Amino acid sequence: MPTLKEIAEITGYSMATVSRVINRQGHVSEKTKLHIEKAAKEIGFTRENNNRLKINSGTPSIGVVINRISSPFYSLLAQSVEEVGREHNRHLMLCSSGYDANEEQKAIDFLLSHGCRHIVLHSKALSDSALEGICRQHSDVVLIGRHVEAVQERCVWLDSQAGTYQATQHLINLGHRRIGFINLAFDCDDKHNRLAGYINAMKDNGLMVEPDWVQNADWVEVGGRNAARKLLSQGLPVTALLAFNDVYAASALREFQSRGVQIPSQLSIIGFDDVMPQCYFSPALTTLKYPIAVMARKAALLSLTGNYAQFPQGQCYYPTLIHRESVAPYQHEHCV
Amino acid sequence: MPTLKEIAEITGYSMATVSRVINRQGHVSEKTKLHIEKAAKEIGFTRENNNRLKINSGTPSIGVVINRISSPFYSLLAQSVEEVGREHNRHLMLCSSGYDANEEQKAIDFLLSHGCRHIVLHSKALSDSALEGICRQHSDVVLIGRHVEAVQERCVWLDSQAGTYQATQHLINLGHRRIGFINLAFDCDDKHNRLAGYINAMKDNGLMVEPDWVQNADWVEVGGRNAARKLLSQGLPVTALLAFNDVYAASALREFQSRGVQIPSQLSIIGFDDVMPQCYFSPALTTLKYPIAVMARKAALLSLTGNYAQFPQGQCYYPTLIHRESVAPYQHEHCV
């Protein structure tokens, strides 16, 4: 079996340099990298037969790459992967990537170089083609929350668009016509899909969307609060509001309440995710449930079994509208 | 340098068996284990000069052991450790242990066997002497949220008792005399310390604590809700309440509100932790801040630098009482 040592001998580079290239860690010039990779290929060396990986394979693990540990959505995702790992005597290796393409790639490389081949990858920053390349090269990487058509048998994702379409239609059915949307500022598939569901439902009902009704919000609670303030400064031009996630919904809701807007009699709000205990919402939040715990279990099992033939079209989930207390039928202003 | 192979040759066991014993993974009979460990000791083999660890040390990591990923307190702890790791070009390896001694030990073994020597350990189930043994054997393990006197230079902990004493005194200063406590059901140092702070403050003010005023709550929101129901079924014998953590506070608060109890005019509530965005509380929660993010940073740096001489007494932090909207002065019943 070809070894790193052989590559070092053929190329004349030190073992350390060869190791850096093969394990994709530390700085090596592009020229050196190409030289070493070419030599490795010629003698039939692959990352899979790297001794280091073999050595590590004695302590089985499962890896997960997420945006941010301290977000309830991602910590639930990671916990489900860990649970599946535990059921299969595997420990969790976790990397967060801050929605940065470079960090996402580094996280994957780190896991692989630690012999962690089974990876549930939540990537929002790497391109479709980069993800396709990763999946083709590493047979146990599964994508969650992302649909990459070329490798869709490896994908477990949510049809966000169907969710926001359904939620918007529900509000329209209740008589609302002026409906707003607090979207994510960060550019990714979810942002566009969730907006599209809302826009399409409005269009299909012959309703216009005024530009002022859509607010982009930065991460976490400040984003939701600022979006609410913006809408209030415009005289609150809407009677109902969809939020990209429940944090935006909760922080906007508090801001509206503190300014005397009654929820839901004066303003209906629908969130997205449903990953928080309900004791944190008052009124209880009507929201689109993202079944992330179930999906993460599926993704982890898919990676461990490698049974990709079972779902050649991938596994698409749909959000469910959970009816609670933050939505009311439209009331004429004078009735409020 | 002694190797696993030598141990295998001396003892006559296979490499696989020797590896399982040395890396503390997989099942091996007690007799075999003792035989191999004895041989390893005789030829001067230690885990630290295990080649596997050496090989892994090329991809630096930092480890963290926590109770549960999907709890905001622990995800914040893990995120801080990850941030420090990132600043030192180290990736995070995370294990959760479910407050189980066996799982805590397995988590530590997993990290060590992956060449992850720098470990921030949040242990509530292992005994003081077990933790002392781990610290003595592994020079880069640091304890967080736990004070083990024999190795206190390795400890970064919170004086919980000082916190609940201060919070109880604050309520007494506001005229409250009948003060309750929603405690954790799970038996650990935090449970006893937080209760002691409350009891001592009551005693020091010449106040009795009726047994009915202290409720033990199971994990997460159901625990807080049930404690509130129990107190309500007793006719709500208190005018103020301390909660072991903010989840209990939030879920008890919602239950009281849903039963028509005005917070804070009829009942004051103080939580513990302050790890959640404030948009999730209405009224905004008065609480004891557990500076876990700062403490986790300190613990991670302490493990990486090994500078234990700097704080021979360890690093003790104090919770801060954050005044918000869930506490009011005591009002006579007829004023409510």
TrEMBL record, chains A, B:
One of its GO terms (molecular function) is transcription cis-regulatory region binding. Keywords: DNA-binding, Transcription, Transcription regulation. Residues 2-56 form the HTH lacI-type domain. InterPro entries: HTH_LacI, LacI/GalR-like_sensor, Lambda_DNA-bd_dom_sf, Peripla_BP_I. It comes from the Bacteria. Pfam families: LacI, Peripla_BP_3. The keyword Transcription applies. This is HTH lacI-type domain-containing protein. It comes from Photobacterium aphoticum. The lineage of its organism: Bacteria, Pseudomonadati, Pseudomonadota, Gammaproteobacteria, Vibrionales.
